[in-house]
Design a protein that fits this description.
The protein is α+β, with helices and mostly antiparallel strands. The chain is built from 6 helices and 18 strands. The chain folds into 2 domains: 128 residues, Roll (Diaminopimelate Epimerase, Chain A, domain 1), CATH 3.10.310; 121 residues, Diaminopimelate Epimerase, Chain A, domain 1 (Roll), CATH 3.10.310.10. It has an 18-stranded mixed β-sheet that branches. A hairpin with a 4-residue loop joins β4 and β5. The chain starts with a strand and ends with a strand. GO terms for molecular function: isomerase activity. This is PhzF family phenazine biosynthesis protein. Keywords: Isomerase.
């Protein structure tokens, strides 16, 4: 069996920046063990697998350790593969996922994704969180799909030296550190050691939780964001009720095939 795949750098217009995702093209679904083995072999934060389903596409995402419910950068990467390499001609593409139907439109400025917003609520600071963030105490913590640790300055987030073993002990998917940005509306760093991703370069799904928080705090629904990882990346967000639109660019880095 031969499976074509593409490695795409998402939320950037230049290779070796943004967040790399592998995208594997399927005609039919193999066993989940094979999907997980391919994701482990790729050893990227996410590998996306997609196959046609009616007029749409079924899309699934795997980290090196587990399948996840939502992944923004690998969704962007999959849409990029469809448009740039597989001659998709529609105005948009619809993916059927564990988080419901997700639509992506290609525009002059990039790919616009329509995702569900993620709610969060203030909670007490978990005991391992301060240790996990290198002894830095956030101004507030909100719990949702991830723990959202809010700091007052961009430098507070940039200077974090996380203890990934401590962060892995915290319930939930992962930990997001965020603060107001100096040259954008907000910045972040995202840590998912429980999923085998110590620090994710650019995390689209995390912005589904951050954008509603910052929209409520600033009173604006259109927001610009940067993720302060080593690779870095930009995400433009728009909050529309219980949906969040994320706009980003993508570039293909690698084309290959698995021979199984």
């Amino acid at each position: 069996m031969k499976l074509d795949f593409y490695q795409v750098d998402a939320f950037t217009e230049r290779v070796f920046e943004g967040n790399p995702a592998a995208v594997v093209v399927l005609e039919a679904w193999p066993e989940d063990d094979l999907l997980q083995a391919i994701a482990m072999e790729n050893n990227l934060s996410e590998t996306a697998f997609f196959a046609p389903e009616g007029d749409d596409f079924r899309l699934r995402w795997f980290t090196p350790r587990a399948e996840v419910d939502l992944c923004g950068h690998a969704t962007l990467a999959t849409a990029h593969v469809l448009y740039e390499h597989l001659d998709h001609a529609g105005e948009g593409v619809r993916f059927l996922t564990r988080s419901g139907a997700l639509s992506v439109r290609r525009e002059a400025s990039g790919y616009r994704m329509d995702f569900p917003a993620a709610a969060s609520a203030l909670v007490a600071v978990p005991g391992d969180l301060i240790d996990g963030l290198g002894g830095r105490k956030p101004a507030a913590v909100l719990a949702g799909p991830d723990h959202l640790a809010v700091f007052e300055r961009e430098a507070d987030v940039a200077e974090l030296r996380p203890d990934f073993a401590a962060l892995a002990r915290i319930d939930g998917r992962g930990v997001i550190a965020t603060a107001p940005g100096e040259n954008c509306d907000f910045v972040s760093r995202c840590f998912f050691p429980r999923l085998g991703v110590p620090e994710d370069p650019v995390t689209g799904s995390a912005h589904c939780q951050m954008a509603p928080y910052w929209a409520e705090r600033t009173g604006r629904t259109s927001l610009s964001a940067r993720q302060l990882s080593a690779r870095g990346g930009r995400v433009d967000c728009r909050v529309r009720g219980d949906r969040v639109e994320l706009l980003g660019q993508a570039v293909t880095c690698l084309v290959g095939a698995f021979h199984l």
